[in-house]
Write a structure and sequence with these properties.
Belongs to the AHA1 family. This protein has about 160 residues and is of the alpha+beta class. The chain has one domain: START domain (Alpha-D-Glucose-1,6-Bisphosphate, Chain A, domain 4, 2-Layer Sandwich). It is about 25% helix and about 40% strand. The chain contains four helices and nine strands, in the order βααββββββββαα. The strands form two sheets. A seven-stranded antiparallel β-sheet has the order 1-9-8-5-4-3-2. Strands 6-7 form a two-stranded antiparallel sheet. A hairpin with a 6-residue loop joins strand 2 and strand 3. The protein is globular and about 40 Å long.
Length: about 160
């Protein structure tokens, strides 16, 4: 069952990145759901994702540990809310695994993918609790950061086909 209403965009609170990428949807899905693959592209260079844990089910853990070029580390703990194979991932930092409240609430992310021949229609939505949090995410470089990460995902997956 798809919950289309959850993907309704509120321009006051949400950021959206949408593209068609020349990568099959299966490769995009694997890049998002296999920790060893995700670590290869998830964080815009020169940042790195040095650890990742994925328990791919609603209530399952979505954890990444990012490292700045200076060596500072930034853990991101969250939980999957919805997993639809080859179509959708929804995760949030408002909850930890097992749907335990985290005490942190920056965003809920929707990542959808749709096969278009050998390409994929890719859409990422970051939903925020208030306009200030959305603005903070914009100022952090949402469009450049998530766009660069997607470029890196495409480049990474192309190395898998060689």
């Amino acid at each position: 069952m798809k919950l289309e209403s959850n993907e309704t965009i509120n321009p006051e609170l949400d950021l959206v990145l949408e593209r068609i990428v020349e990568v099959p949807v299966e490769m995009v899905w694997n890049a998002w759901t296999k920790p060893e693959q995700l670590k290869q592209w998830f964080t815009p260079v020169p940042w790195k994702t040095i650890d990742c844990r994925i328990d791919l089910k609603p209530g399952g853990e979505f954890y990444t540990l990012m490292q700045s070029p200076e060596g500072n580390q930034f853990p991101n703990n969250g939980c999957f809310l919805e997993v639809v194979p080859l179509e959708k991932l929804v995760f949030t930092d408002s909850l930890l695994s097992g749907f335990r409240p985290s005490g942190n609430s920056f965003m809920t992310a929707f990542v959808t993918m749709e096969s278009i021949g050998t390409a994929t229609k890719y859409k990422a939505i970051a939903k925020h609790k208030d306009p200030e949090t959305k603005k903070q995410h914009e100022d952090m470089g949402f469009m450049d950061g998530w766009g660069t990460a997607l470029d890196q995902l495409v480049a990474f997956t192309k190395t898998l086909t060689k």
